[in-house]
Design goal:
With 240 residues, the chain is α/β, with parallel strands linked by helices. It is 34% helix and 32% strand. The strands form 4 sheets. It has a 5-stranded parallel beta sheet with strand order 2-1-3-4-5, sandwiched between helices. It has a 5-stranded antiparallel beta sheet with strand order 10-9-8-12-11. Helix 3 links the parallel strand 3 and strand 4. It starts with a strand and ends with a helix. The mean pLDDT is 86.
Length: 240
């Protein structure tokens, strides 16, 4: 499932973006869900309440919370979301890349450029979904995409690693050292003895606490705090 949010304060243009997006991804094997929001505040409240999206298509000039402010918040709290700015004005291009926007598309070029960008992202998201682990024993097994893992932990003396995911907690009989060699170290980060966090699922960091999606919290050891903040900053493309 590819989840897309469209944020624009002009209703007809929201509908136009939806029409182009639906047409561009109509032939994709993955299902597509598109939701529309009239301004940045409404979208940000929805995300804060637990809505999740893969792609954000946002206008820049909007009342209340403009696209740039929204983009900075989303990049800080949902670093894995792809941001595409759609605007009538060229002067915001430099700022958009400073917050690591994936693309900046002028509205007059929407029909020619947006379909290709969305199909490219659909491919990236499909590749991400294909990276998974099979967890479980005996007759009960589950296919867990790496991107769905919020964090994992191994209790002292335990023989199993526990995977905390959107769908619940799964476990695998494996040593944490062995598992770490199989994980993408650009995304998965050890933060405490026996705890590894998916940096793309961190919403914010305050003091020594990481606040993840779905309301989970993980403490960072004092010895690793500076390194953890540095790695989060690198992963997010900004300041942690």
């Amino acid at each position: 499932m590819i989840r897309i949010a469209i944020v624009d304060d002009e209703g007809p243009f929201r509908d136009r973006i939806e029409e182009i997006a639906s047409g561009a991804l109509g032939g994709e094997t993955a299902e597509t869900e598109i939701k529309k929001y009239p301004d940045g505040i409404c979208f940000y409240e929805a995300v804060s309440a637990g809505e999740t999206f893969d792609i954000l298509l946002a206008d820049i000039q909007m009342a209340g919370m403009d696209g740039m402010e929204l983009g900075r918040k989303i990049r800080r709290e949902n670093p894995g979301m792809y941001i595409i700015f759609v605007t009538s004005y060229e002067e915001y291009a430099a700022e958009s890349y400073r917050i690591d926007a994936y693309q900046y598309i002028l509205k007059q070029d929407l029909k020619s450029r947006l379909p290709g960008v969305l199909r490219e992202l659909a491919g990236k998201l499909s590749d991400r979904e294909r990276a998974f682990r099979i967890l479980g024993t005996g007759a009960e097994k589950a296919k867990i995409p790496y991107g769905d893992i919020l964090y994992l932990y191994k209790s002292k003396g335990a023989k199993y690693v526990n995977y905390v995911t959107e769908e619940g907690i799964f476990r695998e009989r494996i040593s944490l050292d062995t598992l770490l060699k199989e994980l993408d170290t650009r995304i998965f980060l050890p933060v405490e003895r026996g705890y590894v966090v998916n940096m793309q699922r961190i919403r914010r960091i305050s003091g020594d606490t990481l606040y993840l999606e779905k309301g989970y919290e993980v403490q960072v050891s004092r010895a690793r705090l500076a390194k953890v903040k540095q790695e989060i900053s690198r992963c997010w493309g900004g300041n942690a």
